[in-house]
């Protein structure tokens, strides 16, 4: 567990999502605004999250829907451009998440100096994107080949919009994932971004992997944070920080401040 404090300088860290707008090549890309619009929207959200007091930030291509399990080269290149433009403004630890391509996330992390990535590293799924397979051994070897050994790996073990092809309990999945693949952390999710993570599932996973940090990956709010953080070792928060709690809106700094005030009170 000690790496959490080494990276985030606190216990029970709150990692805020900085959702980047659709990239070139994505169906939702704003050709008129271009890369400048993506950068400025990202800067607005980053500064609001930092002013609100979050412990870390994670950049993702949230609006690259429909997602790909092997992204186009332009997606990684564009994200690297955006994050590089924002580097002078980043004052807290940051990570990256290229949806849903684990190798691409590691490539981006090396390029921009990210401290952690969140991805689907293990499992085979029936998903909204078709049959989805992974190869953790090859991905982790790629991590070492590109010099990303110090990048912490957060494993989303039961991704939104997907189900394991085999009949296995989440508790068993967590236990064998930790034994076989040595993740730095485990993320437990609801069914979509913004959907509350079932606290009972968090409890099952924590019991199965007591020595591995477990994050509530979706749906943490001001109303449920005490319940969620009483079990989880940290949380990843995106949708709640937006105006009116709507994922497509920009970040509302007051919502962030109110949330983090409650987090500090919970930490004592």
What does this structure look like?
The structure is a single chain. The protein is α/β, with parallel strands linked by helices and 268 residues long. It has a single domain (2-263), classed as TIM Barrel (Alpha-Beta Barrel). Helix content is 38%, strand content 17%. The chain contains 9 helices and 11 strands. It has helices at 2-8, 34-52, 73-86, 102-112, 136-145, 170-181, 199-208, 225-229, 253-267; strands at 14-19, 56-60, 94-97, 116-119, 124-127, 130-133, 152-156, 162-164, 185-188, 214-216, 234-237. Strands 1-2-3-4-7-9-10-11 form an 8-stranded parallel beta barrel. The longest helix is centred in the first third of the chain and has 19 residues, at 34-52. The two termini are 19 Å apart.
Distance between the termini: 19 Å
- Class from helix and strand fractions: alpha/beta
Instruction: Classify the fold: give the CATH topology.
Output: TIM Barrel
What percentage of residues falls in helices of 4 or more residues? 25-40%
Shape descriptor reads globular
* CATH H-tier superfamily: FMN-linked oxidoreductases
Highest-level CATH class:
Alpha Beta
């Amino acid at each position: 567990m000690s790496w959490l404090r080494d990276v985030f300088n606190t216990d029970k860290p709150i990692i805020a999502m900085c959702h980047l707008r659709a990239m070139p090549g994505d169906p939702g890309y704003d050709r008129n605004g271009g890369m400048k619009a993506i950068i400025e929207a990202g800067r607005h959200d980053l500064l609001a999250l930092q002013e609100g007091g979050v412990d870390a930030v994670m950049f993702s291509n949230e609006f690259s829907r429909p997602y790909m399990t092997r992204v186009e080269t332009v997606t990684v290149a564009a994200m690297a451009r955006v994050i590089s433009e924002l580097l002078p403004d980043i004052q807290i630890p940051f990570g990256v998440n290229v949806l849903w391509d684990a190798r691409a996330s590691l490539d981006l992390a090396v390029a921009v100096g990210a401290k952690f990535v969140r991805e689907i590293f293990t499992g085979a799924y029936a998903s909204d994107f078709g049959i989805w397979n992974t190869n953790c051994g090859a991905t982790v070897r790629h991590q070492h080949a590109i010099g990303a050994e110090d990048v912490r790996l957060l494993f989303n073990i039961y991704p939104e919009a997907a189900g394991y092809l085999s009949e296995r309990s989440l508790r068993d999945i967590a236990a064998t994932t930790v034994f076989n693949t040595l993740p730095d952390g485990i993320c437990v999710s609801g069914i979509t971004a913004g959907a509350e993570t079932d606290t009972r599932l968090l409890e099952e996973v924590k019991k199965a992997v007591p020595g591995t940090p477990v994050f509530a990956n979706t749906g943490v709010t001001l109303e449920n944070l005490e319940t969620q953080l009483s079990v989880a070792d940290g949380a990843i928060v995106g949708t709640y920080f937006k105006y009116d709690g709507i994922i497509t809106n920009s970040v509302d700094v007051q919502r962030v401040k109110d949330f983090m005030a409650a987090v500090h009170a919970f930490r004592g």
